[in-house]
Design goal:
The complex is a heterodimer of chains A (249) and B (664).
Chain A: E1 3-12, E2 22-30, E3 34-39, H1 45-52, E4 60-65, E5 68-69, H2 75-85, E6 86-89, H3 101-111, H4 116-130, H5 145-157, E7 163-167, H6 175-191, E8 195-199, H7 203-206, E9 211-216, E10 219-225, H8 231-248
Parallel strand pairs in A: 3-8, 3-9, 6-7, 7-8
Antiparallel strand pairs in A: 1-2, 1-4, 4-5, 9-10
Helix pairs in contact in A: 3-4, 3-5, 5-6
Chain B: H1 2-8, H2 10-34, H3 37-43, H4 48-88, H5 93-134, H6 148-175, H7 178-183, H8 196-214, H9 223-226, H10 229-259, H11 263-266, H12 271-320, E1 325-329, H13 334-345, E2 352-363, E3 392-396, H14 397-406, H15 410-414, E4 423-427, E5 442-447, E6 450-460, E7 473-476, H16 478-486, E8 491-498, H17 506-515, E9 523-524, H18 525-568, H19 570-579, H20 583-620, H21 633-661
Parallel strand pairs in B: 3-7, 4-6
Antiparallel strand pairs in B: 1-8, 1-9, 2-3, 2-5, 2-8, 4-7, 5-6
Classes of the chains: A alpha/beta (249), B alpha+beta (664).
The complex binds adenosine-5'-diphosphate and magnesium ion (MG).
Magnesium ion binds at residues 45-46 of chain A.
C-alpha cells in the first residue's frame, strides 16, 4: 500500500509554553487506513491534528501528504490544499447555523466550482447513505445532535478528501448516536476508501479503527493494530492498554 | 476582576466609550451654547432661539437616554453568557451586579470626563464659527470654557441616566433565571417561514408612497392640491413608514429566498454563505435595521431640506435685490442726500448711480400674464408687504442695459439683441407652473386714449429692479418708452447704486434707512444675504446638533450590531478557513455582509430624502428661480457628506471585524 501521510520528527512548542506539546513524533499512514489517536487530556492529540491539517505550523520536523511537504505551503496555497485534500469533523458540529443542511453540505463543492446540478445530486446521494435525507431542508438547530454530527461528517466526506481528520467526533453524542456515526465513518472508510484519522479517548470508538496510536506527553508511547481479530477483541485489548497506562501514572 | 474584564473586552468598550463620549460632547456643547447669554443676546430677538433651544434640548435628552439605554442593553446581552458562568461558579447575583455596575460607572465616567473637555472645546469652536460667519463682535474672553450651569446640568443629567441604567440592569439580572442567562445569546432561530402577503404589501406600499410623491409634478391637477397638502403628506408618510417596515422585514428576505432558486448564481463559494446569512440576520435584526433606516431617512431629509431652505433664499437674492442698494426717490432732494451719504463710505468713482423712471401702464388685453395683477390683493404673495396697482411697469431697453451693466451681469447682456419698436421683454415673477411662456403674445398698452400694441419677444427672470419697486416689469424699446413718457403716465423714480466698495456696509444701510424714514422700498443685496444668514444660522446650528447626533447614533449602532453578529459567528469563519476558504474569500464575505447592512439604511434614506425634497421644493417653496439642477447642489452636498460618514463607519467596522475574525 502506498503511503499517504508521513510525519517525521514533528515537534510543536507553543509560544510561552515551557514544554513542547509534541516531541519528535514520527509515523506514517497508508491510503485507506482508519487510524485512531488516543491519549489522556492534554497529551497533544489536538495539537497533532492541527499540525497535520495545516491549521497550525510545527516548530520542527516534516510532514508530507500525497508527497507534498506542508512546510512549502503558505496562506493561499495552504487554503487550496485544504480545499482539495482535507476534510474535518469536530467534537462540536460546527455547522453554519444560518444555512440549511443541504447548503451546509454543498459548501465544499461550491469551493470546487462544480455545477449546481452535480452538487445537488452528490448531496442527495450522500445524505441518503448517512440517513439524513429527510432533514436536508431543515436548519441545524432543528436537528438532533447525532443528525448534526452526521451532517458535518457528510460535509467533510462529500468532496472525497485524501484524508479526513476527526477530533473527538463522538465526544458530545449519546452512545446510540455515536454508534451510528462510527458506522457511517466505517462505511465511508470501507466503501469510499476515505482515509480517516480520528482522535478519541473512548475505547469503544477506537475499536472501529484498524490501528491506534496512543499518546502521552506529546509522544507516541504505544501502537495497537486490529489485525484479523474481531472488533470485540480489539476493544478488549484497547481497554486493557488504557487501564494499564492509567495505573502507570 | 472588573478591571480584567475591561481589558479583555477592550475592543467593544473602546467604541462604547467613544460613542458615549461623543454623545456627551454634543450634549454638553449644546447645553453650554443654550446657556451662553452673551451669544444668545447677539443672535436672538425676543426669545426665538431660546424657545427653540428648549425644544431641541428635550429631543436631545430623549436621544441621549435612548442611545445610552440601547448600548447598555447591547453590552448586557453580549455579556449575559459570561455573567451566567459567574453565576454557575457560585457568584452571588449581588456580586455580579456590582461588577456590572462598576464597569458601567467606570465607562460612563470616563466618557463624561472626555465628553466634557471635548464638548467645551467644541462649544468654543462653535462660538468662534458663528462670530466669524455673522461678523459679530464678541469678546471671547468673556465666555468661560466651562459654563458652570451647563456643567451642572450635563453632569446631573448623565448621572441620572447612569443611575437609571444600573437600576434597569439589576432588574434584568434579578428577574433572569440562571438558565435564561446561559441560553440568552442563542435565541431560537426557528420560524423561518416566509409570508408572501406582507412581502407584497411592503413592496406595494412603498410604490404607492413614491407614486403619491411624484404626483405633485402634475401641478394643479395633482391630489396634493385637490385634496390638500397636509392630508396627502401624512398619507404618503404613513405609506412609506409601513412600506419600509414590511419591505425590510418581509420583502427583502422573500427576494433573497427566491434568489436561492437561481442555482447557478447561488451555488458559488461566496453567495452560498452570504445569502442565507443575510436572511438569518435580517430575521433577527429587522427591528434595528428598520429603526436605522427611518433614522437615516429622517436625517438625510432634514439636512437636505434645511440646506435647500437656506440656499434657495440666498440664490433668490439676485432677484429680490439685484442692485447692491436700491431705493425709491419720493422727494426732490433725496438723490443728492443719498449720494452725499454714500460718498462718505466709498470713493465717488467706484460707485455707479442709475436713476430709472418706471411708468405704470394699464392694458385692455384679455390674456394678460399673472405678473400684471400679482401683488394687488392681500394674500397674493407673502413676499410683498406692499399692495400695488394693476398694470405693467415699463422701463426702456437702454435703461435695462445700463442697469445690467452696473450690476455686472455680463452673461445676461451677452444674450440680448435689441428690440424693434413694437417688441417688448416681459420680466416674469416666477415661471408659469404649466411650463408655458408668453413669448409671441401681444398686449395693448393704454397710453392716454391711444393703444400701443407690443409683442412679447422674450420672457426673462433677470429683473433689473427689485420686486419691492417693480413687479410686472415690461421692457419696451426706447421709442415706445418715449411715447409713454410723453403720454404723462404715472411714474416712480428708482435710484440703483452699485459698486464693490459699498458691499457689506451694514452701517451705510442703517443710515440710509434713517435718511429715507424706514422706506419699505429700500433694498440691499448684501444686506439681504446677511439678514438671511443671521436669521437662519441659529436654526441651522440647532438642527445641526440633532443631525450630528443622529449620525453618531446610526453609525455606532451599525458598528455594534455588525461587530457583535460577526463575532457571534466567529467559529463559522474558522470552519470556512478549515474548509479551504482563502483569507481573501473570507474577507469578501465579511465585507459583503457588512455592506448590505450599511447599504439598506443609506439607500432607503437616499430615496426617501430624494422624494421628500422634491415634494418640499415643489409644494412648499416659492418658485422664483429657474428650475435647474444647480438648485439641488445643497441636497447633493448633504447626501455626499452622509455617504462619506457612512463610508468611514463602514471602513471602521470592516477593519474591526476582520481583525477579530482573522486573528489566528
Ligand atoms: N494554543 C495553545 N497555546 C499554548 N499551549 C497550548 C495551546 N493549545 C494546547 N496547548 C498545550 O499543549 C498541550 C497539548 O494540548 P492538546 O493538543 O489540546 O491536548 P489534547 O487534545 O490531547 O487534550 C497541553 O499541555 C496544552 O496545555
Ligand atoms: Mg483535544
Amino acid at each position: 500500500m502506498n503511503t499517504l501521510l508521513e510525519a517525521h520528527e514533528v515537534t510543536k512548542t507553543y509560544e510561552k509554553a515551557q514544554r513542547p506539546s509534541l516531541k519528535k513524533v514520527s509515523f506514517s499512514v497508508a491510503a485507506g487506513e482508519f487510524i485512531g489517536i488516543m491519549g489522556a487530556s492534554g497529551s497533544g492529540k489536538t495539537t497533532l491534528l492541527n499540525v497535520l491539517s495545516t491549521i497550525d505550523v510545527p516548530s520542527g520536523g516534516d510532514i508530507l501528504i500525497n508527497g507534498i511537504n506542508l512546510r512549502r505551503l503558505t496562506g493561499k496555497s495552504a487554503a487550496d490544499f485544504r480545499r482539495d485534500n482535507l476534510g474535518f469533523i469536530f467534537q462540536e458540529y460546527f455547522l453554519l447555523d444560518s444555512l440549511t443542511i443541504r447548503e451546509n453540505i454543498s459548501v465544499p463543492l461550491t469551493l470546487q466550482k462544480l455545477l449546481p446540478k452535480k452538487i445537488e445530486g452528490m448531496v442527495l446521494t450522500l445524505a441518503e447513505r448517512f440517513g439524513i435525507a429527510p432533514q436536508l431542508d431543515k436548519y441545524p438547530s432543528e436537528l438532533s445532535g447525532g443528525q448534526r454530527q452526521r451532517a458535518s461528517a457528510a460535509r467533510a466526506i462529500i468532496k472525497k478528501p485524501s484524508i479526513l481528520f476527526a477530533d473527538e467526533p463522538t465526544g458530545a453524542l449519546d452512545s446510540g448516536s455515536a454508534t451510528e456515526l462510527l458506522n457511517t465513518l466505517l462505511e465511508a472508510n470501507q466503501e469510499l476508501d476515505t482515509t480517516i484519522l480520528m482522535v478519541t479517548h473512548d475505547a469503544y470508538a477506537a475499536s472501529f479503527t484498524n490501528r491506534i496510536l496512543i499518546f502521552k506527553d506529546g509522544q507516541i508511547v504505544k501502537e495497537l493494530s486490529k489485525q484479523d481479530g474481531s472488533r470485540h477483541d480489539f476493544y478488549e485489548s484497547i481497554a486493557a492498554e488504557v487501564a494499564r497506562l492509567d495505573t502507570e501514572r | 476582576m472588573a478591571f480584567k474584564n475591561l481589558r479583555k473586552n477592550f475592543s467593544y468598550y473602546k467604541l462604547y466609550l467613544t460613542s458615549v463620549s461623543l454623545i456627551i460632547t454634543t450634549f454638553f456643547a449644546f447645553t453650554s451654547f443654550s446657556m451662553n447669554r452673551i451669544m444668545l443676546d447677539k443672535i436672538s430677538e425676543n426669545g426665538r432661539v431660546e424657545s427653540m433651544c428648549n425644544t431641541i434640548s428635550i429631543f436631545l435628552m430623549a436621544f441621549v437616554i435612548f442611545f445610552m439605554a440601547y448600548s447598555n442593553r447591547f453590552f448586557l446581552k453580549r455579556r449575559t453568557k459570561e455573567l451566567g458562568i459567574y453565576a454557575l461558579l457560585g457568584y452571588q447575583k449581588i456580586t455580579i451586579l456590582s461588577l456590572l455596575t462598576f464597569e458601567n460607572i467606570f465607562i460612563c465616567f470616563g466618557a463624561l470626563g472626555i465628553g466634557l473637555v471635548t464638548g467645551a472645546i467644541a462649544h468654543k469652536g462653535i462660538v468662534a464659527g458663528i462670530t466669524a460667519l455673522l461678523r459679530l463682535s464678541v469678546d471671547n474672553a468673556l465666555i468661560p470654557l466651562f459654563n458652570v450651569n451647563a456643567l451642572k446640568k450635563t453632569v446631573g443629567f448623565i448621572m441620572v441616566v447612569i443611575f437609571a441604567l444600573c437600576i434597569s440592569n439589576s432588574r434584568f439580572l434579578f428577574k433572569a433565571s440562571l438558565m435564561s442567562l446561559i441560553r440568552f445569546e442563542k435565541k431560537a432561530e426557528k420560524g423561518m417561514a416566509f409570508h408572501y402577503c406582507p412581502a407584497i404589501l411592503g413592496f406595494v406600499m412603498i410604490l404607492c408612497g413614491y407614486g403619491l410623491a411624484l404626483d405633485i409634478f402634475r401641478g394643479r391637477k395633482s391630489v396634493w392640491f385637490s385634496i390638500g397638502f397636509y392630508p396627502v403628506g401624512m398619507l404618503t408618510a404613513i405609506f412609506i413608514l409601513f412600506g419600509t417596515i414590511f419591505f425590510i422585514s418581509a420583502f427583502l428576505p422573500y427576494v433573497m429566498e427566491i434568489s436561492k432558486e437561481r442555482k447557478r448564481t447561488f451555488y458559488t463559494q461566496i453567495k452560498i454563505i452570504t445569502i442565507p446569512n443575510f436572511i438569518y440576520r435580517i430575521r433577527s435584526n429587522a427591528k434595528t435595521l428598520i429603526m436605522l433606516t427611518l433614522f437615516s431617512a429622517a436625517t438625510l431629509t432634514i439636512s437636505s431640506v434645511m440646506a435647500l431652505s437656506l440656499y434657495y433664499p440666498i440664490a433668490a437674492v439676485s432677484r429680490m435685490a439685484p442692485s447692491e442698494l436700491e431705493c425709491r426717490i419720493e422727494k426732490g432732494d433725496q438723490v443728492e442726500k443719498v449720494k452725499q451719504l454714500v460718498s462718505e463710505y466709498a470713493p465717488e468713482n467706484t460707485v455707479t448711480y442709475t436713476q430709472t423712471d418706471i411708468y405704470k401702464v394699464t392694458s385692455k388685453s384679455l390674456n394678460l400674464p399673472m405678473e400684471y395683477s400679482v401683488g394687488t390683493s392681500k394674500g397674493d404673495s407673502d413676499n410683498q408687504a406692499l399692495l400695488r396697482e394693476k398694470g405693467f411697469e415699463c422701463i426702456s431697453y437702454s435703461q435695462y442695459l445700463s442697469l445690467l451693466q452696473a450690476q455686472k451681469r455680463e452673461d445676461v447682456i451677452k444674450d440680448l439683441c435689441g428690440l424693434k419698436d413694437d417688441e417688448c421683454i416681459l420680466v416674469k415673477y416666477q415661471p408659469n407652473t404649466d411650463g408655458s411662456d408668453e413669448t409671441g403674445k401681444t398686449y395693448l398698452l393704454s397710453v392716454n386714449r391711444n393703444d400701443i400694441l407690443v409683442t412679447v419677444k422674450e420672457v426673462t427672470l433677470n429683473n433689473p429692479i427689485s420686486f419691492a419697486n417693480s413687479v410686472g416689469t415690461l421692457i419696451v424699446s426706447d421709442a415706445t418708452y418715449e411715447r409713454i413718457q410723453l403720454g404723462g403716465m404715472p411714474k416712480t423714480s428708482i435710484l440703483s447704486i452699485n459698486g464693490e466698495t459699498i458691499e457689506n456696509q451694514e452701517s451705510l444701510f442703517d443710515e440710509l434707512k434713517d435718511l429715507l424714514e424706514n422706506s419699505p422700498y429700500l433694498q440691499g443685496h448684501t444686506h439681504r444675504i446677511n439678514e438671511i444668514f443671521s436669521l437662519s444660522s441659529s436654526t441651522f446650528l440647532l438642527i445641526g446638533f440633532l443631525v450630528v447626533l443622529f449620525f453618531i447614533a446610526t453609525g455606532s449602532i451599525l458598528y455594534f450590531n455588525n461587530l457583535s453578529s460577526l463575532t457571534d459567528s466567529k467559529e463559522d469563519y474558522e470552519i470556512l478557513g478549515k474548509m479551504g476558504y482563502t483569507e481573501t474569500a473570507i474577507r469578501r464575505i465579511v465585507k459583503k455582509q457588512i455592506a448590505v447592512f450599511f447599504c439598506i439604511p443609506f439607500l432607503f434614506g437616499l430615496i426617501d430624502c430624494f422624494f421628500a425634497t422634491i415634494v418640499y421644493k415643489t409644494g412648499l417653496m416659492q418658485n422664483i428661480l429657474k428650475n435647474s439642477l444647480s438648485l439641488y447642489v445643497p441636497t447633493l452636498a448633504a447626501i455626499a457628506l452622509t455617504a462619506i460618514i457612512y463610508l468611514i463607519y463602514y471602513w471602521l467596522t470592516v477593519r474591526s471585524c476582520c481583525k477579530i475574525i482573522l486573528k489566528s
